[in-house]
Amino acid sequence: MARWVVAVVAAVLVALSLWQLERPRAGLVIEPFPIAGGPPATLFHLPDATPAPVVVIAHGFAGSRQLMEPFALTLAHAGYMVVTFDALGHGRNPLPMSGDVTLVDGTTRLMVDELRTVARAALAHPRSDGRLAYLGHSMASDLVIRAAQQEPRAKATVAISMFSQAVTPTDPANLLILPGEWETRLGVEAMRVLHLTDPAATADQTVGDPARGTARRVTIAPGVEHVGVLYSATARRAATDWLNATFGRDMPAETDARGGWILLLLAAITALGWPLSALMPKGQGAPAPIPSRAFWTATLAPAILTPLILAPFDTRFLPVLVADYLALHFALYGAITLYLLHRARRLTGQFPARVLLLSLAPAIFGILILGTALDRYVASFVPNAERATIILALALGAVPFFLADALLTEGGRASAFRTLAARGAFLASLVLAVALDFDRLMFLLIILPVILLFFLLFGTLSGWIGRRTALPAIAGLGFGLTLAWALGVTFPLFQA
Fold it and tell me: Which keywords, in A-to-Z order, does the entry hold (predicted)?
């Protein structure tokens, strides 16, 4: 009975979340925006509107158009013509990033050129009034600043979670900087840039004159970090007000609690996994808990050995940034863990023939159901052909790792302390890998929240399946494939 109640409540919450997330799209024209020789792009505008200023929005590293929709929807409702796009190597863009990522004249220049190509196409659209503003997050904050400095028609720039060495006291015109409250270092950087113009300026104080293009302002979004700032109503309202001041408009900012509804949607879909797990065949009994010594050996040894073993080798074999290293890290970590569990006689009876077939159920749930929601409201989850080999390579690593994780946590039967220890050890091993080769692997730090979210969502689902079937390998195989898919569509394509 309890499973039916959970199923009904979760279904209602899914429907409510979808309704709330679709509401901001109502009343707008949202359509593909083809750009000759340019990236995949989307156009947002009010129907039957008069020509308006163009706002070109650029996402950050490992992002995509979907991630920037909160700002796109807000500004489109405020009457602006908004264009979002998938940058080189990101989302559904088939062209990889290239050049030297450490040089301004390398990858940065190529991505600025792409951004300017999008802006030129948008300014040529019949709904454009010939005026332009840029908005960029994280990595793209530097790109939009450099693009605005090269484009006289750029009248304002909104830099979210900004880090850029290109800003001067007067260039680009009308610069608004939006760090999150929990981005302490980026908040300090924002104030440093503001003080280039006025050493006495404070946050939430406008320096200069928007009508003359000399304005500067820092607005700190409360209670958010590097990703949460994109969903902040304060940040979206500040961006709208800034552009209105620049272009002499007075359309209000319509902000919604998009971030909260996305979290509720993902939580409700995950909750559906509990009643659905009852459809799996019920297992008979469960093995005794892993002895303490065997558990800690299988938890700590791979966390220490994996980064140390891989550190001396050149692990670049895939056309994508750091995913090749991550695939090897997963594979070696999983192999060491499985070997130690085998030595402790914890693999016996865990792989009957039906495991392979049953593992398709969690893979379908993760990739099709949760993946569809992520692709619609969070970030690109549909791979293009160029990513097929990357997903396959990651699967060869992620499946052994997640299989080992499921067995080490005893299919959800292990204590919360052991579960946190096992997964915390893996995250610590990635941090150690970055510390050993920061210049090459620093982008792994950006992907850590994705892995943490994966542990939270799919670790919960894995526990339900493991306790139902008494076969942790089912969830380990299924969600290993899901993790490979999720990471394979997230890492940027890169060609040296």
Answer: Hydrolase, Membrane, Transmembrane, Transmembrane helix
Overall domain count for the chain: 2
In angstroms, the CA 295 to CA 337 distance is 10
Q: Is residue 84 part of a domain?
A: yes
Answer for the pair 41, 85: CB distance below 8 angstroms, yes or no.
yes
Q: In terms of residues, how long is the chain?
A: 496
Return d(Cα 421, Cα 409) in angstroms, integer. Answer: 10
The pLDDT of residue 154 is 97
**How do strand 494-495 and strand 97-98 relate by DSSP bridges?**
parallel
- In-domain check, residue 276: no
What amino acid is encoded at 412 in this protein? G
Last-in-domain residue among 221, 256, 291: 256
Whether the Cβ atoms of residue 472 and residue 411 lie closer than 8 Å to each other: yes
What residues pair up with 57 in beta bridges, in sequence order? 84, 135
Which two structure tokens, joined as six digits, stand for 156?
């304002």
pLDDT, residue 221, reads: 98
Q: Contact 452/350 with Cβ under 8 angstroms?
A: no
Residues 489, 492, 496: CA angle, nearest 5 degrees: 140
- 493 DSSP β-pair partners: 320
Domain check: are 133 and 233 in the same one? Answer: yes
Q: What is the CATH number for 63?
A: 3.40.50.1820
Burial 308-332 (b: 16+ CB within 10 A, else e): eebeeeebeebbbbbbbbbbbbbbb
Q: Return the H-helix or E-strand segment holding 134.
A: strand 128-137
Tokens of 293: 């010594």
Domain assignment present for residue 246? The answer is yes
Within this chain, do residues 251 and 301 fall inside the same structural domain, yes or no? no
What are the CA-CA distances from residue 326 to residues 61, 301, 304, 338, 342 (Å)? Answer: 17, 18, 15, 18, 24
Rg of the chain in Å (alpha carbons) = 24
- Quick one: pLDDT at residue 479? 92
Could you please report the per-residue DSSP string of 230-287?
GG-HHHHHHHHHHHHHHHT--PPP----HHHHHHHHHHHHHHHHHHHHTTSPPP---P
224 conformational bin, left if phi > 0, alpha if psi -120 to 50, beta if neither: beta
Q: What is the extent of the structural domain holding 162?
A: 22-256
Identify residue 449 by its one-letter amino acid code: P
Peptide bond connecting 472 to the previous residue in cis, omega within 30 degrees of 0: no
Tell me the sheet residues that pair with 81. Answer: 54
Strand order of the β-sheet with 29-32 is 29-32, 41-45, 81-85, 52-58, 128-137, 154-160, 175-178, 216-218
Q: What pLDDT, on the 0 to 100 scale, is given for residue 101?
A: 78
Beta bridge partners of 128: 52
In the chain, count of helices (H) and strands (E)? 17, 10
- Say what the pLDDT of residue 376 is: 97
